[in-house]
Amino acid sequence: MKTAAIHTLGCKVNTYDSEAILELLKKDSYNIVEFEEKADVYIVNTCTVTNLGDKKSRQMIRRAKKNNPGAFVIVCGCYAQTASEELEGMPEVDLILGNDDRHRIVEFIEEGMASQTPFNAVKDIMKVREYEELHIDHLSGHERGFIKIQEGCDQFCTYCIIPYARGPVRSRKPENIIEEGKRLIANGNRELVLTGINISAYGKDLKNAGDLAALVEMLDGLDGLERIRLGSLEPSYLTQEVVDRMKGSEKLCDHFHVSLQSGAVQTLKDMKRRYAKEEYALVLERIRMAFPHAGITTDVMVGFPGETEEDFLETMDFVKTMAFSQIHVFKYSPRKGTPAAAMDLQIPEAIKQERSEKLIALGNELKKDFEDRFFGEISEVLVEQEIHDKKNTYQGHTTNYLLLPVSSATDIRGHLVQVRISRDVEGRLIGESL
Questions:
Q1: pLDDT digit string (tens) for 191-203?
Q2: Theoretical Cys-Cys bridge with 25: which of 30, 171, 260, 340, CB 3.0 to 4.6 Å?
Q3: Where does the record place the TRAM domain (predicted)?
Q4: In terms of CATH architecture, what is 378-433?
């Protein structure tokens, strides 16, 4: 039997794309094995958000060929899309695919194996105008089902390579999203997570499709679905009217990931983020008025070119004032071809590291403050996985994205469990089953 393995780097969109690719291979009678095992075909679904993503992608390409020197190695994803000529110089690579035409992967494998000639199938992603319809019926190892609802981004922030890697905004037809949602629910997923490169832009390229809030309203009516969770949102989308419509959903989780990047006025301008910090603060106020227990998470970048110590302290103050439940901190990484990479006043790595550590420490404080608000409260956890190094212990998330371990003598994965929120002897948050 033919065998294939895949390694996925980067975001949840890549996770979805990889699962869709695996389903195509399964339909062509491939047996899917672990990446460390010997396989006939290896696929590396790459990330290029940072230089580290590029480096890890190259490492996994070499590892694939080391696992089986005779294997057919495919590289797809964002690094493949933006650096296909660089990948042509790697002797380990047999097929470069990029971020389109993934639905033809079986055809490309057959042609490549027959010709024994490396092939670059990457096309100009900026000219792609149609959403590539890929399907999944079940997301392996996940109790939450991820549905990709759109592709591409038109923001063009000065630091970001992703619009060049993913192309313009292409929204998926709502009827296809609904049908996939039904399949995932039928296969046991009780929560659906809507993901994409910029889901706030959903529907803007479709006639009469409605926006993201309209899609949530449609999904609300699916039988057997308990929760809808949103991926990363742009603050400019979250107008009062949109938040009011979302408040009307019976199944939408009170967890909102609202991208920030910086809390400094000048840095936001240099990044070409499309909001002022005052507007961002108003968005969070709207959310909290509509969803009093909301977990609000965000991304913050440190070390953007020209970021002064005063700018960084301004960001620290703003992050503290916004009282996020969790923050993802990352260091600026220059991406070739972006405006920020050519800017003066690039920040030394040592300063980036120092600022990163300070912001992470603040994030940990804010996370604990948020958790403390719910100590002793009763909440509901969707149990997602077993904790393998702890006997009879599982874990899952509340609607507002608190991650809670839950003890049980029976397998409760996929169950919604009522718990009282507490802490263990080491101070870590836990859920006590009721």
A1: 999 999 999 999 9
A2: 30
A3: 372-434
A4: Beta Barrel (2.40)
